[in-house]
Amino acid sequence: MEPSRTRVCICYLISTFLIGFFIYILVSSNLENRRKFGRLREEVDEIAHVVLHTAPGQGDTKHLNEIVDGILKKRLAGIWDDLYTMKKQLRLTECAGRTTTTANTMTAEGEGGALMERTVPARINYAAEELGAKVQDVNAEPLDGGNLVRSVLGLQYSANPPINMLRSGMEPGNCFAFKRAKAVVTIKLAQAIFVESFELAHLCKDNAPNNDTTSAPKEFEVYGITATSSKEAKFGDFTYTNQHPPAQNYEVKSECKYLYMRFKFKSNHGHPEYTCIYRIAVYGRSQK
Predict the structure, then answer these.
(1) How far apart are CA 284 and CA 151, in angstroms?
(2) pTM for the whole thing?
(3) Would you say the C-alpha torsion 180, 184, 189, 194 has a positive or negative sign?
(4) Is 136 exposed, middle or buried (0-12, 13-18, 19+ CB in 10 A)?
(5) Beta-carbon neighbour count of residue 128 at 10 Å?
(6) Which pLDDT tens digit goes with each residue over 96-123?
(7) Which of 6, 59, 133, 161 stands the most exposed, by the fewest C-beta atoms within 10 Å?
(8) Domain boundaries in the chain?
């Protein structure tokens, strides 16, 4: 019996050693990945800083591109394409100060209710996810219903998550969808700015399934919130007109810098079951 017990003890020790070694490898790998992602986050923030704080028309374009190239070459190979979009954003910022040939004509309905056609030059969208903007809070009824577990895990809007509003893709279904027509969405901008205008976009009828765009939002209110106060400053009541271009721009005036934008959607264009918000963009300037 003694040799048998000895073999059992040896097997137990070897098994314990192997399990411990395996756990050590997993922990080491996890720590290394966390360090890599930490460095990646810092470098992405550096790119965003260049984009947001380089005034159009200032600085040497070649020098700025060399800075971005140097940062990009440090990136992990698997995400090169994602980070390269940040460099494109920098180029758009530079071009905005030198030319208006990239301008787009948009139709908007302001607080007074009159439609205006205006030319909007390329500008920084401070509500873009790639620049660090995020959805701070959502008060809406999920499409597939909600329960405590899904709410705690943040999965109540998993089918059509709110972050879709801050992304550039406009494919059918790539939106934030909620039941009926009422919702309150609070967005944290990439940085505090003097808001000059915002944009709301929905699918055009040619791209919508069955040419149905009745799920587009209609009446809504917009508020600004500073970084140091929770008090809302109302920009106005607005209407998204479903018979006009899918991206509609609304001019506003702000006397102070706002870090948060709150959108209170009150109705849609007739869909009885749900409303879809495809894209929100916010434009402005960091200095008065």
Answers:
(1) 34
(2) 0.58
(3) positive
(4) middle
(5) 22
(6) 444 333 344 444 444 444 444 455 456 8
(7) 6
(8) 2-96, 104-285
